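Hey, resending since the last one bounced:
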Amino acid sequence: MDRWRLLLVDDHALFREGLAGLFAYQDDFVLVGEAGDAAGALSQTAALQPDIVL
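The structure tokens again:
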């Protein structure tokens, strides 16, 4: 089964940590990265090629 590749973006680390914890229990998703700002999100999106940026 293919898993959705997920990149989390938010400027609050605690919020990203909470979302990462929720997705850790979902078999359909794999967290490939996190970013704290738009610049980081753009560079990680180009490098990691996630299916979903949240």
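The longest helix spans residues 13-24.

Sorry for the duplicate.
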